[in-house]
Amino acid sequence: MFGPLGISLAPQVRASKTLTRWIKPFANWYVNLSGYRKMGLRYDDLLVEERDDVQRALGRLTERENYDRTFRFKRASQASVLHANLPKEQWIKPEEDIRYLRPHVEEVVKEDNERKVWDAISVERRK
Fold this sequence. Notes:
The protein has helices at residues 10-15, 17-34, 52-58, 63-81, 102-119, and strands at 2-3, 6-7. It has 127 residues and is mostly helical. β1 and β2 (6-7) form a beta hairpin. α3 (52-58) crosses α5 (102-119). It starts with a strand and ends in an 8-residue tail after the last helix. The model has no long low-confidence stretch (mean pLDDT 90).
């Protein structure tokens, strides 16, 4: 429920077929309304980059993932300057909108938590 990227009820919703059936249409409607796919962006492109854990996760992207991310931002900014969405064939399809950055952010948070545990250990001398 509480993850490094905020509160999420998605695991509970996915666990219930009834909730999924009721909420999925609203979720799809909301994603279409937000319009980031029409600009050629993925969901993880919208994460706040000023956060320290996101910055470190961005440093862990492969060269190809980093290039693709930069290309998506340049294409979206050009579409924004022109005040128009991309052509429909260039929109991000739902099956292409994968969470490429989330695993890296979760890994960074786990490492930070582990570091806190190890830093809090007190060593005592045996008598």
